[in-house]
Amino acid sequence: MKFGDLSLAERIRCFRRGTAWRTGPYVVHARVPIRFAARHLAWLYQDFEVLPHEVIPDAEISVRVAGFAWRRVSIFSDGAVRYRRVARQQLVPLLEWTMNLSVFHRPTQNLLIHAAVVEKAGEAVLLPGEAGSGKSTLCAALVHRGWRLLSDEVAVIRPSDGYLLPVPRPVSLKEGAIEALREFAPTACLGPVWPRTAKGRVAHVLPPTASVQRMDEPAGPAWIVFPQFRPGAGCQLEPLGKADTLLHCAGNAFNYSVLGRQGFKTLAAVIDICSGYELVFDDLEAAVRTLESLHGRRDAGLAVSGGAWS
């Protein structure tokens, strides 16, 4: 049973009592007793299966009322307070950020890189970048041109074979990126705009149904592209050497140093397979055309195989 198969009352009741769902290899359990937030989360995750109560989650998130007339709430992650006494209007984006912190910052054997990831015809492109680089906006644009969404936040690389594990979730857009995507893809399914958050105006793009349905289908890495949105810069794609690609990826990794030798071996093997680039852009249409031009003409010419990880 998916959240989208439930009636509105059943969805709200699920989140108020506490419910769990899986996105890729991670299971999240959330208890949200605030009606509007429960309704919105159920909409964002409408294509995800409702898991039985006895499932063991990777992260437990809960919301508690912390102010008069429910005007303030606190958010807890695994029993510890993550956000204390925040305005109700900020609850939904803060819940999404809490899920990121709860899942992607916990111990794991997979290598985690701060990057959006999309795939087409079995080949994936990693888009590493800090906040404001345009990676999520470019990710959402590519998804609306037929690419499969693996993640807009973290590339999960399996050390045993270098494959990317999908973690499809709503894509978070901020400030001007909201209008940019609406202009680029008028049919994009965006939720409401949440104003005055810690990151400014925020809206979420619904993950495509097909991407959710294929969340157990990993993809082989083909390119690593470091995007940088820069007004007035046009669109420029420049090749990046292997050493620089490795250094930039390591700088964007969450657990590269924690994994030690295994982290280096995994990242080095992925970079050996991939072509690296820097992409400076000021227009989504031009950036998407540039990345699509890479498809089908990989210069590495190598297939992902377990041999590189032996």
Summarize this structure briefly.
By secondary structure, this protein is an alpha+beta fold. The chain contains ten helices and 16 strands. Strands 6, 7, 8, 9, 10, 14, 15 and 16 form an eight-stranded mixed β-sheet that branches.
Protein architecture, described:
The termini are far apart. Strands 6, 7, 8, 9, 10, 14, 15 and 16 form an eight-stranded mixed β-sheet that branches. Helix 1 crosses helix 2 (about 35-45), helix 4 (about 135-145) crosses helix 10 and helix 7 packs across helix 9. The chain folds into two domains: about 5-105, no CATH class; about 110-310, Rossmann fold (3-Layer(aba) Sandwich). The protein is globular, with a radius of gyration of 19 Å. It has helices at about 10-15, 35-45, 90-105, 135-145, 175-185, 210-215, 240-250, 255-260, 260-275, 285-295, and strands at about 20-25, 25-30, 60-65, 70-75, 80-85, 110-120, 125-130, 150, 155, 165, 170-175, 195, 200-205, 220-230, 235-240, 275-280. The protein contains ten helices and 16 strands. The model is unreliable at about 300-310 (pLDDT under 50). The protein has about 300 residues and is α+β, with helices and mostly antiparallel strands. About 30% of the residues lie in helices and about 30% in strands.
